[in-house]
Design brief:
This protein is an alpha+beta fold and 295 residues long. It is 31% helix and 31% strand.
Length: 295
């Protein structure tokens, strides 16, 4: 890729990050006790489009022991309570993705846990530069979380970003590692510490509202064929069940999942029932440091 082409691509990553920062600020003002989760999620997704981007994945609103992949169902009437809320937002411009998350403590009881993830993110950003290993970044993240008296979530991690793909190599671990790939100038990655007062591991929790298209395969069921055509617009990025036509939707999704056409994203919960906090920014690696696109 030539220098001019690289700069064009990085410009789209920056544009997505700018949109995300504006959308996140607007959404945070709506995360209050008594507010509908669905209204916040729809605000994020609609405002993203109004500002010239597209959702890179459904707005994730995970609460308390939930760590990721929670998004409201259609007609969901759930409201925020005294929750520990993780708001995780993805925006893309022509497929180039920005990914950022923040934790809001509506109970007022988990400020230290929120600070643990935020401190880990800040520490990681400080050590990133061309030539740093992901293992070194993971060690910095783990140390910051443990210094606050909490555990990192060992089976969640940061990740690389590519066009129409929100999870590519390199993996950015949240724990120390002896080995790991080296970050290079112009790499675009999401740094994503998770901290918990639980056992430090997540497991699938059953609820399922997010899917992704792996590849189109022949199916006989009419509704499944129609749904495949609808899903082409997402270019393989995750989508919410509530975004889809409702007629015989469960049958269509079940058919495509059975055929191996869909990837499922069930809610991830802390294995020991512990509270989870999250902090995340997207960065572009530079020669001497990094550029945060989602501030």
């Amino acid at each position: 890729m030539g220098e001019e082409e690289i700069e064009t691509v990085l410009g789209k990553y920056r544009a997505a990050g700018k949109i995300l920062a504006e959308v996140k600020a607007a959404a945070l003002s709506r995360v209050k006790e008594g507010a509908l989760l669905l209204e916040v999620a729809e605000l994020v997704e609609e405002l993203t489009r109004e500002k010239g981007g597209e959702p890179a994945f459904p707005c994730n609103i995970s609460r308390n022991e939930e760590a990721a992949h929670a998004t409201p169902a259609i007609d969901d009437r759930t409201v925020f309570g005294a929750d520990l809320v993780k708001l995780d937002i993805g925006v893309h411009v022509d497929g180039y993705i920005a990914d950022s998350a923040v934790t809001v403590d509506l109970s007022g009881e988990h400020g230290d846990l929120v600070e643990a993830a935020e401190a880990a993110l800040a520490a990681a950003i400080m050590v990133i530069h061309d030539g740093v290993s992901t293992g070194e970044v993971g060690e910095v993240i783990e140390n910051a979380i443990r210094e606050h008296g909490y555990r990192p979530v060992v089976n969640l991690s940061g990740h690389g970003l590519a066009q129409y793909d929100a999870h590519v190599r390199p993996t950015i671990p949240n724990t120390r590692s002896e080995h790991g790939p080296v970050l290079k100038e112009n790499d675009v990655v999401a740094i994503e510490p998770f901290a918990t007062d639980g056992v430090g591991k997540v497991t699938e929790g059953g609820l399922l509202e997010i899917y992704g298209l792996i590849r189109a395969r022949p199916v006989r069921v009419r509704e499944a064929k129609q749904l495949l055509k609808t899903l082409e617009q997402y270019h393989g990025l995750p989508f919410a069940k509530r975004w889809l036509p409702r007629e015989r939707l469960d049958l269509a999704l079940r058919t495509l999942s059975t055929a191996g056409t869909l990837r499922e994203y069930p809610v991830l919960r802390e294995e020991g029932g512990g509270m989870v906090s999250q902090a995340e920014h997207t960065i572009i690696v530079t020669k001497d440091g990094c550029e945060v696109t989602t501030k």
